[in-house]
Write a structure and sequence with these properties.
The complex is a heterodimer of chains A (about 220) and B (about 240). Chain A contains seven helices and nine strands. With about 220 residues, chain A is of the alpha/beta class. In chain A, strand 4, helix 4 and strand 5 form a beta-alpha-beta unit. Chain B is about 30% helix and about 15% strand. Chain B is built from seven helices and nine strands. In chain B, the strands form three sheets. Chain B has a five-stranded parallel sheet with strand order 3-9-8-4-5, sandwiched between helices. In chain B, helix 1 packs across helix 2. The relative contact order of chain B is 0.18. The N terminus of chain B is likely disordered. The chains are: A alpha/beta (about 220), B alpha/beta (about 240).
Amino acid sequence: MKIRNLITTTALFTVLSVPATVMAGSGKLAVNITPTIGKVDVVHNGAKMSIMRNQDENNVINSEFANTSRKCPPFCVQPAIVAPGVETIGEVEVLDYLKKIADGDKSLMVVDSRTPDWVIRGTIPGSVNIPWTKLKDDADPFEVADTLTKQFGAAEKGEGFDFSMAKTLVMFCNGTWCGQSPTNIKRLLKMGYPAEKIKWYRGGMQDWEALGLTTVK
Amino acid sequence: MKTILVTSRLLLAVTAAASMSVIIGCSTTGTAPAAANAAETDKPAELAVKITPTISSVSVMHNGKPVTVMRNQDGNNKVNPEFAKTSRKCPPFCIQPFTIAPGVETIGEVEMVDYLGKMGSGDKSIIVVDSRTPDWVERGTIPGAVNIPFTKLDPDKGADPVSIAESLESFGAVETGKGWDFSNVKTIVLFCNGQWCGQSPISIRTMLKQGFPAAKIKWYRGGMQSWSNLGFNTVTPEATAR
């Protein structure tokens, strides 16, 4: 626990100690992410872009995410913790992972678990779309194996998988009221994916949009 | 075992509350009427917009009156305009980290509702604290919360020793003459305006500095922002005083 905190602290410190890249090209922003982070540069589908917050103080949330009352079930409020050992994270931590990916860390992947019809309306820059349907319990086993080996870095081993080289996944979907990434996380755990290699951004697109953070279509 | 107890308690609350809940619908502000007499209800009415698949609502006392905690039932309802804003200046309204301090658990709405349900069932070992200044609280807070502004806990924000001592005593701490005894403190659940709000984090850091045990502090990071995004009802001081 202490070690994990230390690692997180070190990781955040790394972000803070390279203001040249973090603040690249930015003038003085009024609406920063944290007191010391204005922008984070990422790579989305091979193209460089920056994540920052909307700078118009009168801006209101994307109307898609202004709805408060989707039916539950299925759109129920998710618990703070999805499964034992799976760390729940927020925006600052997601941005830290995105920064590391942009800096060349191949052991990390930020996964948008939503179906493509949602993703085309906007996602987190630097994320990769792997719809939850590709990993759900009744998904084609060959397709599941493909995702695990070709995208997540697992290796086939006998009847199962070897996850020793698997990537650390940061999973998200539409947020506090969305069960898609939680469903995938539970399935991955069942298949043996190590819990400490899965992070859950529970706030998802709901909180990302509520904070005016950059999305990409 | 603990889970079963909690569930049955919540079920009781739902049974008591649900018959009225459907009739009244719900607005994002204002008080939901008192829970109906449980005897009138054979089985809990089904809400379309529940909290979780098994929890429709819970009942909690706010300023001495019972309030039903539930989500807005209008499928077209939009977030309270106060919380539709995306771009408050940072600093000071910066995005908070997910964890505020080692040992302090970050919780969400499901856990908050569970604490409220326990309080509604008579559990006196929990206090939910709205850390915001009163001008914010007037616009609506979480039913069951007491307002202890962060300015009353933090000496750096001008809190005097008397008001700090009063707050700590209300949390179950005992002044011994040699300092504070925190061995019998309550579980304190703190929140403010959410991800972009630093007020409850300040209160938590102050409490930790005084020696308050981290394990007895819970932080609802989503705060009023997430509470409003999910259409949970709120209460205003005027509404409950009426």
